[in-house]
Amino acid sequence: MYNYYPPKPIIIKLTDDLGFRLRNKAADYIKGNLNITGAERGSQEQQGFGALAQIVIRNKLGLTEIVTDYQDISYDILLDSGVKIDIKCRGGDLPFQEEYSSSDNIPREAKHNLFARQVYDESLNTDIYLMTHLETPKNKTLPGTKRQKKWILYVCGWVSKKRAKREGVYLPRGSLTERGRSWFQYRGQEIEFYNKNLNGLNCLEEILKIETKDVKKDEEKRGGLNITSVDAIRIIYDLIGHDILNKDMVNLVSKELGMGKIVKPILHPNQYFHLLDWLKENKQITEEEIKKAQKIMSKEPYTGI
């Protein structure tokens, strides 16, 4: 039986001889098993990261590194309890951070991404997703070299497929999302699920304790917001502007989320002040409104290259 732990990533360094061997094994596996069919399949790089995560976790759990006892592509591990686990991995040249900072010094909660097609596909027969993150060097082509020090796998926690589908936020192609101090658009159909809402692991072997009743329990679980606290406040601001909510909601939600700072806008403050200056020039507002804005944000002058 699984016992709940708050999510805290388990760190597995892949820079020793064993790690290098597993990286080579993942590279060889993808060369012979690259998926070139199906809508919105992962790139060769993404599939390589996924294969590496699967091989590493199976190795650490004392299982055969490459699946040989079943051929269903829906899952990567079949537990003795009958629970099917699909390992999800995204990679990047930064370590996994449970919270990350932005220019306003308000922490953003970490999120994981799932391909929406896989979550909504009922024929993909898995019970839970095991969420991982792979930290890579800038030259991230598998297997890499022995000298590279940034091949690190973070095992973050698990969630049932049904809860990921029910509580995760579906975002179509072109949706905007925040990443550190920058923004980017999703090129595919994604589901965002936040790390704080995962079931954590005290140690990797806890995975072997997950039973069907644990999955059923998670399917009924009600997690928290699957957006950052900052975005929650931004949405409140917007809904107040559309006369859907009243201003009291800002204080209510801010208190609930423990937000004690002013949330910066999505657009650059210079654009806000450009509009405010235009309104003032047309005698629609006074200097008082400008001063109110200056308490929240400030112009950024050109200082040269």
Task: Explain the layout of strands and helices.
Elements: E1 10-13, H1 17-33, H2 44-60, E2 77-78, E3 84-92, E4 99-100, E5 108-109, E6 111-115, H3 116-120, E7 128-135, E8 152-160, H4 161-167, E9 169-171, E10 176-179, E11 182-185, E12 190-194, H5 212-220, H6 229-241, H7 248-257, H8 269-281, H9 287-296
Parallel strand pairs: 3-7
Antiparallel strand pairs: 1-8, 2-3, 4-5, 6-12, 7-8, 9-12, 10-11
What does this molecule look like?
The chain has 9 helices and 12 strands. The chain has helices at 17-33, 44-60, 116-120, 161-167, 212-220, 229-241, 248-257, 269-281, 287-296, and strands at 10-13, 77-78, 84-92, 99-100, 108-109, 111-115, 128-135, 152-160, 169-171, 176-179, 182-185, 190-194. Helix 8 (269-281) packs antiparallel against helix 9 (287-296). The termini are far apart. The model has no long low-confidence stretch (mean pLDDT 91).
Arithmetic mean pLDDT: 91
- Extract low-pLDDT stretches: none
Count of helical stretches: 9
The count of strands amounts to 12
* Beta-strand content estimate: 15-25%
Q: What characteristic shape results from the CA principal axes?
A: elongated
- Helices and strands, in order, run as EHHEEEEEHEEHEEEEHHHHH
How many structural domains does the protein architecture include? 3
SS-based class: alpha+beta
Sketch the major β-sheet: 5 strands, mixed
From the N-terminal CA to the C-terminal CA, the straight-line distance is: 59 Å
Radius of gyration: 23 Å
